[in-house]
Structures are given as structure tokens and as C-alpha cells.
């Protein structure tokens, strides 16, 4: 890029630097080839580079110009290379009468060739020779490169004569692209101009279709590597979708085909409109500002906007906090809007060029296509779309016959997407462009139009590809204009590690997940949801609720409550009746309930199920809520939904269903226990009657109420074998591939710190506890079943891993191993977690259970947190009835059902306050250990 002298003032004085370097050779008759002089030269250059870059950073902080900063850094580099070359030429490898071969031109290539550099960018150089390499040329190149390397630059370089440049450009698209962007820096300028002219004549001419196809393929491959969505919350600003490389690709293609040297010439050529060029420049400048700040901040060529740098970059760029949105969230929303603009530009221009110059070589370019469109003419091979006057299809691409098609009937802005969805058409790039230019037609009257809303609802609830169509609507801007509430969450990110995508991308993906479930494409992951969706009385309310469930994110109030209010306003507009509207609003208001209860409540506690059933009130709502919950979690990001979460949701569903279907028999606890014992006894007929009767009296009532029949049998066999072998410790490891967990059952003498020992052993081995069931037998043994996240694909390997953990628990219980000190003393918050601040909170609630006080502990997650919490709970003389662990990115929510040592709830206000303080300290890393731990263990407990 071209900068004025005012932009570059004070950065580096090349003439003064040359004089100062020359002065270093005064004592050697102008010879600077000795090592002492070289060291002095290097030291002087290091200081000059440090000062100049420091000035460039200060200027960036002052004026905020991304392209200005990139241009200044490029200018500094140019001047540095010129000075080093001149010093080498006049003071190190001096020749009085150079031959025709002893010439060279130094050219910048790659991003440096465009006159832009980030602080950590590679310096890509091409040394152009007239003929073959000479000793003089080799020495000069070597001197320049070693000097740059010693200055700390990463230099990519090639030394070639012009014939080699031409030959290699024809064979290698990367080399061709580099030379396309070559920019003269210093040396023999006539030599460089000869290269440019021959390259244009012998390589570029007549090969634009080949080059365009290669660059578009390269772009697509890069997007696959980086992640197909431009809305990933830790984007790569250089290589990611919507990043700088996409803008580069656009310019490469346009420059190659239209033979332009500056981006502004694309307007004169009719490739970009003035407004599109303004968006191009604005996007380019913003991305360069972010990139330069990122490199300066990290001190390295970091290209990923990770969580740990986003807030600092936001502050540097001047973003402030607004109600409902943090400063970093406002910055990232701007980033994603820019990425969307980049996507619009590259999609429109690259696809148009692909259409015209790759698939249709005889075309006359984008300008010609615009003229044909304005004249109301389309290709003779285009076919009218049946039932949709004004639209044609060609090569499976939908196009308009005239640029007035939307002005004539604004509902066509919705109809065009319904047509594309129904027939699986792609959008012609010019149609996309026309839609963007017609967004002003999406006004209040169109939003109130019944036909427009009918069309939108048919797209949203389509059985074809609603996700694809909604994403296209979002990319063109139609979706955010037609549903302004959706427009408010476009490009909005939530600054946490739980959500992988922006809010709008999450909502669109959730519709895609829902459609997959309905088609039966996800049965292996969530079979219950797949079965239930086919039994719904009204699928329409599910899709509308899914689309709107996070529509109120970014507001100061609870987004579930605000979202329900938005739904009550929008649903009648979409054509839903009062009952449907109320169902959608209820689903949005309660869309987090099922996930929260399943993961953080004791599902064997009857009050948990009764309270949940009272909230849901109908079986149809329960079905809708389960399916919506599954799709919501699945759409958060890869790996967030797993088999264990699915199992918890199914358990909650099956426990609640009888309360809502009329099938709940209200069987007493005693009857339930007697039935469980009877069924187990029938499966243990190979035991002696004495052993069988003794075992059936070995457990407390709660064990029989909450343990699944399959697990009742495996526990019985484990304890029976331990008795026969006269062992006090016994272990069983069962990999469960479908749930994605490994089940580890431990029988051991009752011990007040057993849960803490198990948690410590898991921490030491790197295992993640996702759930557990913990019980005590009437004869003083603990029977603990924990579930750890699966790590290895093969069952046998995973079983051996579980056995290693069990062995560590055993040796620790025997006193042969010592667990580490409280984890907080040795483990700090590391990596990306440093970026987050989660206030520690401990809630004490006596209303959630009839028998227990419920402790809900939330804070910043870290390794070994469960270990520290259980050690602290032991010092508080509390019995754990059940505990549940839920992690949402950087935030952890651990829920413990507890009583005092007499089995009573914690009613004393003063003691509740001590519990809050002690556990909040444990979350924050301050564990208070009491050497006089309680001598008795709780009657029963369950942890997850």
C-alpha cells in the first residue's frame, strides 16, 4: 500500500543510518568485512529496528490504523534491506567493474510484496538474477540473509534468474502467486521490470481460468483445515474463514484476471461497486489492526484470537462495556461482522468469477453479467422456475430474470429462499448480490405481511435443509432484517469456553441438529429423541422454539424470560395460534431446566422428579423439552454432548413420564424395595439361601430405591466374591462405550475420606469423574461406583486404564501411597482459563429435597477441584447423600446433597454461613484441613 511521508515521519532515517554505518569502516579504509565491524553494524541495526518498531506500535495505539501500521512496518523493513544491501555492496563485497552477470534485484513477495507486514510476519524475499548465480551474488545474498536472521527476523527466500522464475511459475501455483505479488525493493530495477513483463506475457496471459480454479480450491481446503465456520469463537484472523487470507484470495484472483496493481482499480473495472470497495478497505484495515495488536501483545506471530488475548485486544481497540454485553463481546461481535463482510465479498466476487471465467470461459466478466441482468436478459439455457415468475435456474443455480424482481414484489425476498430449499438450488452469486442491494425493502410492511410470514415459517420448518437455507438468509442479511430480534444476535459471541459459536450460528446449527434428529440421522447418539420426535402432535412449535430459544442473549435480564416475551410477540406474526404461542414461550422460558436438573440434581430423590413434573405439566411438553434440550446441547459445539449426558436426560425423562402419563402407581417405598429385592433374589438362585438372604438385608433402603437392576446384580456378585475370598477391598471395571464412560466400582471398609481419596486418585491419574453412586452397607462397607470420562477407543485398553486407577486407590487406602497436597497449592489457573473470571458462589438450599440440604457450588474450573471440595466437606462434619458435577466450559457447578452427622438437614443459619465461607475458599484455592476428621461416614451418599 502507498503511504504518505506524513504517515512515515520519524520512523527511520535511512540516509543517516548509511552514514553512521559507513563511519564504522573509517579505520579500515572503508572495508566492513571484518567480524568486529560486522558486530558493530549488527548492534546498530538492532537498536534502529527496536526504536522504529516501538514508534510504529505507539502510532498504532494513537491512530488505530491497521493498514497504516502494516505499511509502516513494511517501510521500515524496506529501508533496512536497502541499507544492508548498500553496505554489503560498498563496504563488504566491493567490485569496481561489475560484469553483466553481477547484478541483482531484491523483490518482496507474499504479504510483504503487498507492502504490508505484521510485527511477527515472515520476510519473504526474491533475489532476481540476470543469468546464473555468481560468487559475488551468492556472497551478497548470504550477507543480507545472515544479517536479517541475526536481527531476529524469520526470512523466506529464493534466488533465481528470470528464466527460472518463469519456468517454475508455470509449474507451481504457489510460486506463481508469490511472483504475482512481487514488489521491487532495491538493486537493479530494470532487471525486476523485465521479470514483471515476461511474467505477465508468458505466465499470466490466457491462464486466468486455471489460476482462479486453483485459488478457489486452495481456499476451500484452507477453510476445512481451519474450521468450516467463520463464527468459531477463537478465530484465526489470517487463515480462518472471513480472515485476511480470504481478502488476499479475492485480490489475487482479480489482479490476475483484470491485470490491476491496486485494489482501487477494481472499481474502475466494474468488479466492485464503490460501497463494496469501501467495505473491502474497512474490513482489511480492521483485520490488520487486530493482527498487529495481537503480534505486539504476544511478542510472536500469533494468528489465533484466543480467549486469553481477546479482552486485552478489545481494550486496546477502545471497546467499552454496555448493558448485557462485555467489552470483549462487543469487540468480537465487530470482528464477526467484519468476517461476515469478508465472506460476502469473497463469495460474491470469487463465485462470479468462477461462474464466468472457469465454468463459462466465453463470458465477458462480471460487468457484462451486470449489464445483461439490468437489461432483463439471462442465458438462453436458463429455465423458468415453475410457479415462481421472475426466477430462472441454470446449472442448478437460481437467478432472477431482472433486477426489479424484488422491487416489484418484496415477498420474493422470502419466496426465493423457499424455492431454493424446496428444489435444493444454489444461489447464483449475482442473485445474492441483488438481494443484499434490496435489503431496504425488508421493512415493517413486509414483516407484517401474512404471505411473507407463511413463507418464512415454511422455510424454518422445512423437511429438506432448513439449516442451509437459514444460513444463506443470514449471510445475505435478509434473516436479520425480517426478524430484527435475530438481527440483534447476529455475530454476537459469549465470552466463555462453553459456547463454540456465535449466537446466530448456534441457533442456525440447532435447527440443523433438529432436522437431523427428525430424519433419523442421529439415532445412535440420542435414540430417545429420535423416537419421540415422530410422535409429536405439533412439530412446528418445536422448530419455532428452537429458532428463538437464545434470541434474547446479550440483554441485561435473564435471556430465557426475555426470550419467552419475544416469542409471545413474534409467534402470532409467524401465524401461530394462542396455544402454540404459549407452548413456544414456555419451552423458551424453561429450555435450560432439563439439562440443569439432569446434570446437577439427584434423580433418585423423589422430590426432584415431582417438582420437575409439576413444572412440565404434560407429556407432550416433556417430549418437546427433551428433544429441544438434546438439540441445544449438540449445537453448542463438537464434543459437548456425550453419551453420559444423554443417559442422564433419558433417566430424567423416564422417571418423570409416569407422573405425566397417568401411569404413576404411587407405589410406596417399602413396596418398591420389596420388589427390587424379589427381582434380584430370582437372579441369585445359584447362591445358597443363607447367602442370598444375608445379602438382601445388607443394604439401606435408599440403595434399593435408586440402583438399576443390572447394577444390583453386578454389585451382588462383586461383594459375594470378595466375601468368599475374604478380601476387604474389591474392584470392578466396566467400559461403557455408548455412554462414553468407564464404570469403576469400589468395595472398601467405610472411611470418612473415601470420596476424597477416590477424587484424589482420579486427579493424580488425569481421570475426569463425570458421575458416581456411593453407598454404605449395613455391615460397614462402602460400595462406591464412579464414572470417569472415557479416553481410549478400545474397550480392553480402557479397562486396563480403569484398573490402574483402582490400583492407586487400593494402595492409597492401604497406606502405601500418599495423595498430593491440596491441589490448589500446586496447581494454578493456566492457559486460556486465565482469561476468565468466575465469581465463587455457594448456595445452601433446604427446599430442593425432603431429606437433604443441597449445596450448589460454582466457580472457575481447575484440575483437582472435586478433590479439594471433598476434603473440605470432610472437615465440616457433613454426610454426603449425593453429589453431581457439571462443567460448562470454564465454569463448574458442583451440587452436594448433605446432612449433619445425625442425618438432619443443616438448619442453623450460623453453620450455613460457615459452610458457605469454607467451600467458597476451597473453590478459590484455600483448603482448610482438619486433622480431626469425623470418625464415622455418612449412612449413604452418591456423588456425580
From TrEMBL:
InterPro entries listed in its UniProt record: ACT-like_dom_sf, ACT_dom, HD/PDEase_dom, HD_domain, NT_sf, PII_UdlTrfase/GS_AdlTrfase, Polymerase_NTP_transf_dom, UTase/UR
Tree of life domain: Bacteria
SUPFAM superfamilies referenced in this protein's UniProt entry, alphabetically: ACT-like (SSF55021), Nucleotidyltransferase (SSF81301), Nucleotidyltransferase substrate binding subunit/domain (SSF81593), Poly A polymerase C-terminal region-like (SSF81891)
Start and end residues of each ACT domain: 743-825, 854-934
Annotated spans, Uridylyltransferase: 1-384
Domain (HD): residue spans on this chain: 503-619
Cofactor: Mg(2+)
Regulation: Uridylyltransferase (UTase) activity is inhibited by glutamine, while glutamine activates uridylyl-removing (UR) activity.
Keyword S-adenosyl-L-methionine part of the UniProt annotation: no
GO molecular function, one term: phosphoric diester hydrolase activity
Coiled-coil stretches: none
GO biological process: one example: regulation of nitrogen utilization
Reactions accelerated catalytically: [protein-PII]-uridylyl-L-tyrosine + H2O = [protein-PII]-L-tyrosine + UMP + H(+); [protein-PII]-L-tyrosine + UTP = [protein-PII]-uridylyl-L-tyrosine + diphosphate
EC number: 2.7.7.59, 3.1.4.-
Keywords, comma-separated and alphabetical: Hydrolase, Magnesium, Multifunctional enzyme, Nucleotidyltransferase, Repeat, Transferase
Pfam families tied to this protein: ACT_ACR9_3rd, GlnD_UR_UTase, HD, NTP_transf_2
Record CDD domains: ACT_ACR-UUR-like_2 (cd04899), ACT_UUR-like_1 (cd04900), NT_GlnE_GlnD_like (cd05401)
Domain remark text: Has four distinct domains: an N-terminal nucleotidyltransferase (NT) domain responsible for UTase activity, a central HD domain that encodes UR activity, and two C-terminal ACT domains that seem to have a role in glutamine sensing.
UniProt similarity note: Belongs to the GlnD family.
Function: Modifies, by uridylylation and deuridylylation, the PII regulatory proteins (GlnB and homologs), in response to the nitrogen status of the cell that GlnD senses through the glutamine level. Under low glutamine levels, catalyzes the conversion of the PII proteins and UTP to PII-UMP and PPi, while under higher glutamine levels, GlnD hydrolyzes PII-UMP to PII and UMP (deuridylylation). Thus, controls uridylylation state and activity of the PII proteins, and plays an important role in the regulation of nitrogen metabolism.
PANTHER family, per the entry: BIFUNCTIONAL URIDYLYLTRANSFERASE/URIDYLYL-REMOVING ENZYME (PTHR47320), BIFUNCTIONAL URIDYLYLTRANSFERASE_URIDYLYL-REMOVING ENZYME (PTHR47320:SF1)
Alphabetized NCBIfam families for the sequence: PRK05092.1, UTase_glnD
Name of this protein: Bifunctional uridylyltransferase/uridylyl-removing enzyme
Originating organism: Roseibium aggregatum
